[in-house]
Amino acid sequence: MFNNFRLTYDVLDVSAVYEIADNACNGAVVLMSGMVRNQTGGRAVDYLDYQAYESMALQVFQNISDRCHQKFPDITEVVIHHRLGKLKIGEISVLIAIGSPHRAEAFEACRYAIDTLKTDAPIWKKEFWLDGVSSWVNCPI
């Protein structure tokens, strides 16, 4: 489990996350990659900045994994890596991989994990638009 949960300022590695989720028992590994898009609500995005309460976020990642294993008992692995700091258009901000003997459960668990992360993890995103304006997204400040 040491590598399963990670917050980093470094570029996220899709193949490393896949490898952690892979297991001889698996019939599927579902990997979700969240990326910085070039617009939000019709506004041109310049870049994003992610910040986190790191120790709490890692505990939330563990809690998400625990809940995934409870809801989807056959899954073998839950991997959550999230990037922090300034990210440009097209860069990967989050990777979630689920290993499972069956694809349906892997897809469902992956969707559950990203949806739960978006609501529960203390990770905040600030959008910077090309017009020079910026604002926090879904931040309880």
In CATH terms, the superfamily is Molybdopterin biosynthesis MoaE subunit
Please name the CATH architecture. Answer: Alpha-Beta Complex
Relative helix content: 25-40%
Mean of residue pLDDT? 95
Number of DSSP helical runs:
3
Stretches with pLDDT under 50, minimum 5 residues: none
Largest sheet: 5 strands, antiparallel
N-end to C-end Cα span: 32 Å
Structure class: alpha+beta
Cα gyration radius (Å): 15 Å
> Per the principal axes of the C-alpha atoms, what is the gross shape?
elongated
Number of domains: 1
DSSP strand count: 9
Provide the succession of SSEs.
EHEEEHEEEHEE
As a percent range, the share of strand residues is: 35-45%
CATH fold description: Aldehyde Oxidoreductase, domain 3
The CATH class name reads Alpha Beta
The oligomerization state is: single chain
